[in-house]
Specification:
By secondary structure, this protein is mainly beta. It has helices at 6-14, 94-97, and strands at 39-50, 57-58, 61-63, 67-70, 73-79, 84-91, 108-115, 118-126, 138-148, 151-160, 165-177, 180-188, 200-210, 213-223, 230-239, 245-256, 264-274, 279-288, 291-303. Strand 10 (151-160) and strand 11 form a beta hairpin.
Length: 304
């Protein structure tokens, strides 16, 4: 209790207790630990050039030789006590700052509380489906997560404010061997993928890391009430045994019989170079439905 009455005022101002005045404080040899701030701030930003249609300079990352679908963002995160955490992220590139892109600010705004192997998240976050190579959208809702040894699962219920429906996502994955992870995903609700008419989706994915090789792939199939299928698939191989250089090759393709999400395929050859721990330069060429696509971009990540 803070008070400035008689005795307490004398103790605080003069340091005098029971007549012992001006006693020098004992100097401790113990090192006082530096308290780390629970807050972190950072960004994940792209800037570059491409010959994609109607684009020259880019402020988001090029994906699959098809579009600039990798959003630049800046964020503030908090790691509190008792398993609490939160994050707010704002899109800094064209995806979130231009009109009619399908994305709205903020990119993320969520709070999470963990209880042992379980965690619960509420707010706006990237929905859990596959490797998030195709279905990569932030939506508002609630998510439960479970991690037990080599197995993890996420189930999310999200409100779609464009189709006025609920979208549900489920993903389960497991480390089946050293460096090998496999996963399955399921989703329901109209608009579950970029507000299209599809209301059911399933997916399977795998990632393999062996020595300096990293291979990942994913297959998705979705249907609408007319039972017209959408199919997506990708496979990517990267080699990390050349020091700061990283070459990679990938194939991306999708087809939508409803016509809403279009048809596309591309074979991509990429090369990255890590200039500093925070800055990389990335280049790529793709033979695709859009013709020959080329890009050169800087990828800058920072956190403090």
């Amino acid at each position: 209790m803070w008070t400035f009455s008689g005795v307490w005022f004398a103790v605080l101002v003069t340091g005098q207790v029971h007549g012992r005045a001006n006693v020098p404080a004992q100097i401790s040899n113990e090192t006082v630990p530096i308290m780390e701030s629970p807050f972190r701030a950072g960004w994940d930003a792209y800037f570059g050039f491409t010959n994609l249609p109607a684009m020259r300079r880019t402020r988001d990352g090029v994906w699959a030789g098809e579009s600039t679908s990798l959003p630049s963002n800046m964020y503030v995160a908090w790691n509190g006590t008792g398993g609490q955490s939160a994050k707010v992220s704002l899109g800094a590139g064209r995806n979130f700052t231009a009109r009619n892109t399908g994305f709205e600010q903020p990119a993320e705004a969520w709070y999470e509380k963990s209880f042992g192997e379980f965690a619960f998240r509420a707010g706006k976050y990237w929905v859990p489906f596959g490797l998030q190579e195709w279905e990569y959208e932030p939506k508002t809702g609630m998510m439960a997560q479970w991690n037990h040894k080599a197995i993890s699962a996420s189930v999310s219920s999200n409100q779609n404010f464009d189709t006025y429906t609920n979208n549900t996502y489920l993903r389960i994955c497991a480390d089946v061997a050293k460096g090998v992870n496999v996963g399955v995903s399921w989703a329901s609700g109209r608009g579950l993928m970029f507000n299209s008419s599809h209301d059911k989706a399933i997916g399977a994915d795998a990632s393999v890391s062996l020595h300096h090789w990293n291979v990942s792939g994913e297959a998705i199939e979705a249907h609408n009430r007319g039972n017209t299928p959408f199919r997506f698939g990708f496979v990517k191989t990267a080699y990390q045994g050349f020091g700061k250089w990283m070459p990679w090759v990938g194939y991306y393709g999708w087809s939508d019989r409803s016509g809403e999400l279009g048809d596309f395929h591309s074979t991509v050859f990429g090369l990255g170079y890590q200039i500093t721990p925070q800055v990389a330069i990335e280049s790529g060429v793709a033979g695709s439905t859009n013709g020959d696509v080329r890009w050169l971009q800087f990828h800058w990540t920072w956190e403090h």
